[in-house]
Write a structure and sequence with these properties.
- The chain has 239 residues and is α/β, with parallel strands linked by helices.
- The chain has 2 domains: 81 residues, 2-Layer Sandwich (60s Ribosomal Protein L30, Chain: A); 142 residues, Alpha/beta knot (3-Layer(aba) Sandwich).
- The protein has 9 helices and 10 strands.
- The strands form 2 sheets. Strands 7-6-5-9-8-10 form a 6-stranded parallel β-sheet. Strands 1-4-2-3 form a 4-stranded mixed β-sheet.
- α5 runs parallel beside α6 and α5 packs parallel to α9.
- The longest helix is centred in the middle third of the chain and has 13 residues.
- The protein is elongated and about 60 Å long.
Length: 239
Amino acid sequence: MSLSKNHIKLITSLGQKKYRQNHKLFVVEGVKVVKEFLNSSFELHQLFSTDNSFAHLPASILIEEHELKKISKLKTPNRVLAIFKIPEPKKIEFTGLILALDAINDPGNLGTMIRLCDWFGVSQMICSKDTVDCYNRKVVQASMGSLTRVSLHYVELESFLSNTDLPIFTADMNGENVYKTNLPNEGVLMMGNEANGISDAVKSLSTHELTIPRFGDIQQTESLNVATATAILLSEFRR
């Protein structure tokens, strides 16, 4: 079997969220990331490879490099592209440290934040429904396989925050200095939209406000990138 027009049509369609949801499928590219998903609980639907490294898999199809370029979104395609099934969402556990996101739009930021959660042992992320889809190709690539170990839940954020007994921490320029704050082992860390921050409705449900102070002599930088700020705050929660 070789790469068919139907394969190309399906893979191209999965670039759009509505088709990912309809087919319950998403695309993963590159040897390292594909292997992460193969070694996880995610179920493989189809795999296309330019060599025999994955020939032992029943769903594997050997293709030529020029065919891989047709279906890849990477500047330099890396030997393999796979389609995996989107799993049923897990039940939210109201325990531990949880990262919550309010309207994160940039796929690179979300992918990085998934990777950060994996690094800092945060197993759950709660996302507003207008946060970028975690099965977007750019998110999957930026997460570098961490999506296999971190559960994302897309919910009505205000409802979730209203129904948790965990303390809710928001990042705010006027908040308490994070380096001088005693942080708990459990709680919800809330991060906001890249341009507009956390919405007023969500912010009103916060129980604590934190800030990362600026140390430069000329303090003209308005804010940190949201993924960078998340890394600093998660590090402080785990310190």
